Amino acid sequence: MNRRLKPGILRSTILCAGLLLGAASPGAGAVENWFEEFKAGADDRDLYRFLYALPKGGDLHNHMTGSNFSEWWYQLATDRQLNGGYQYYTRVRIGNCAGYGRDMFGQTPYLMYFHNLQASSYRALSDCEKGEYKKIGALDAEEKAAWLDSLRLDKKHEGREEFFQTHWQRLADLGQNPYINAEMLVRNMQAFAREGVRYIETMGGTRFYKKPDGSAFEADAVADIFRDRLAEPDARETGVTLRMQYFLLRFIDSAERDLEWIYRFVDRHRDLYVGINMVGREDNDKGYPLRFLPTLRKLRRDIPGIPLAIHAGEVDEPNHHVRDTLLLGASRIGHGVNLISDPDTMLLMRNGDYLVEINLISNLLLDYVDDYGEHPFPEYLRTGIPVALSTDDRGMWDSNMTDEYFVAVKEFNLSWEELISLGRNSLQHSFVDSETKAALLGDYEARLRRFEQRFRRRGMAGLSDVVPHSHGFTCEHYGLCEFSATAVASN
Ligand SMILES: [Zn+2]
Question: Is 23 exposed, middle or buried (0-12, 13-18, 19+ CB in 10 A)?
Fold first, then answer.
């Protein structure tokens, strides 16, 4: 069960707020009376509309392929004008054919529906296996609905295993088309722009991409495809700045060699790539943080520094992964859920320069917390550990950044100062160059001032032109379906 804001608690908060505010302007620890009054009187629809319109900063923890909605995948998989001329097939039946089991990590299980292949891979199949697949554009209505659902965590029984062991493997060739990924970057920029996000630092690579004939792209050519698409007018018109982090899959045998290659690649592409991340489930001990310390120390001997933001503490048991990850040189920690069980590292991070990228929806759906009463976010926020909200794989959660803010306010009763600190932190701790960062921060503060003035003058009437565009998460978990595109489409 999720805890909800209780009116009684809010009323007493308002009384305290009145005492606190006095004649002084609000600072740390103070609360803005107008915002407390708004929360006390707002229903979920008002709160969502307010938070959708609220200016936000950046999304620092965002996986390029996990951020794409199923409907976008379908459209790009079936539109050869948009996808670079590729034809795609998906598995709609299991024919008990001999084991085809190849993907970029060599881990695709055979018994998997909706495994996606491009035509060159399809042509290499046996006749028996070909009989299992169908062109994605030829799926009937029922198959299409199931295909769309196959790329999101939308069932009660789906959690960590479904996400880590099937979603990525199922995408297969679809995730290895650079034109689709470039197009998706722009769709993400457009969607995030609508909800007030102005910076995205997405995790994506440039290797293992396939041409229509199945041959490999050069990594530099893929980076150029991304650059060219980001320079087009529709991308620039979003007003969103996008940079990338290169991700290292941490638990595989070649991870040290991969890290060396990635480090040198990022060094040569610093206009697009601003950092390196390490991904992959942390309960696979082969990817433990200190494994990479010798390699990083070697690389740092002769290559100017590259910022690191690394997944750590996204795990159930207590351990020192966050501390060890700071030792690797990370200045941002992805998730940090189990940091709460490491007091020395918490003390190290209080009022410091290390930020924890908080992913509230991800942590719930992947069962790192059973309910939000267990989440350490409010403890970090309110003891001075820098935090920002981020979306992780929002395409697979069927959610957006506003949903993260909605959960944060509903479950943890954020004050105005706390709320706006999240966006500010996200920009201050971004890896973008200092000139762009200063411009993003100035823009954020100016947009916030205008938003606050408008709202305090006109209240919800000032937001009547705001049309939130949400997805399935808040409908499913909070019964707020009015703005949910997925819910509307399925009605
Ligand atoms: Zn992540």
Answer: exposed
Show Cβ contacts of residue 316 under 8 Å, excluding neighbours closer than 6 positions.
Answer: 283, 338, 368
- In 353-455, the DSSP E strands lie at 355-358, 387-389
State in Å: Cα 41 to ligand 1 middle.
35
Write the pLDDT tens digit of every residue in 309-360: 999 999 888 999 999 999 999 999 999 999 999 999 999 999 999 999 999 9
Tell me the H-state helices in 151-218. Answer: 160-162, 168-171, 178-194
Q: What is the DSSP string of 212-245?
A: TTSPBPPHHHHHHHHHHHHTSHHHHTT--EEEEE
99 CA distance to ligand 1 middle (Å): 31
Task: Please say whether the beta carbons of 305 and 331 come within 8 A.
Answer: no
The DSSP 8-state label assigned to residue 133 in this structure reads E
Q: How far is the CA of 63 from the centre of ligand 1 (A)?
A: 6
CA distance 467 to 330: 38
* CA separation for the pair 274, 353 (Å, rounded): 18
**pLDDT above 70: percentage of residues in the chain:** 88
Whole-number Å distance between alpha carbons of 46 and 129? 52
| C-alpha to C-alpha distance for 61 and 83, rounded to whole angstroms | 26
Residues 6+ apart with CB under 8 A from 23: none
**Rounded Cα distance, 455 and 465, in Å:** 13
pLDDT digits (tens, 9 = 90+) for 202-246: 999 999 999 999 999 999 999 999 999 999 999 999 999 999 999
> How many CA atoms, within 13 angstroms, populate the side-chain half-sphere of residue 120?
14
Q: Which residues contact 236 (CB under 8 A, 6 or more apart)?
A: none
Distances (CA, A) of 331 to 322, 323, 349, 429: 11, 11, 10, 8
Distance 302 CA to ligand 1 centre (A): 29
Domain spanning 53-69+177-449, CATH architecture: Alpha-Beta Barrel (3.20)
Rounded to 10 degrees, the C-alpha dihedral 388/276/183/90 comes to -100
Cα(28) to centroid of ligand 1, in Å? 30
25: phi > 0 → left, psi -120 to 50 → alpha, else beta; which?
A: beta
Burial of 310 (0-12, 13-18, 19+ CB in 10 A): buried
Say what the pLDDT of residue 43 is: 96
pTM (2 d.p.): 0.91
Q: What spacing in Å lies between the alpha carbon of 311 and ligand 1's midpoint?
A: 6
- Using an 8 Å Cβ cutoff, are 353 and 330 in contact? no
